[in-house]
Amino acid sequence: MRKLLISLIAIAALGTGGVFAQSGFWAGVSGGYPGAQVHFGVENVFPNLDVRGNLGFSYFGLVGVGTGLGIGADVLYNLDVDTGMVPIDVYVGGGPNIAIGAVALGFSIDAFVGGEYRLGELNLPEGGVFLELGPAIRIMPAFTAGFVGRAGFNWHF
Asked: What is the pTM of this model?
């Protein structure tokens, strides 16, 4: 059994490394509602599909949860939208989030539409500023609807 587990872990690690070798990465910070986040992402895990992990702090406090730590993951799908002369990458995304608050534990599913403006025209091609807005369905501690909204900065490498 131990050999089987080691073999499966090795195959997963080598396969993941192959996917990441063909992709770019980014890291960033954002602020908005319900709080501030740092995140790390991988571009083109599948064609036009990015994955991002988030770690944040809810300074506004979520209903029934209070202020606290947030952990989540998002899938971002790049849309082929013609924005004319303005170089904005438009995407839709969403994913689960867990809030570990002062009062209770929370769980939500977020969905959003966003856009990132890459700063190549300002001689900073690795940088980008973004804005995301959308609904949030909070499942725990109570079933409620809310929203997410954030603006931030990404560094692509």
From this structure: 0.80
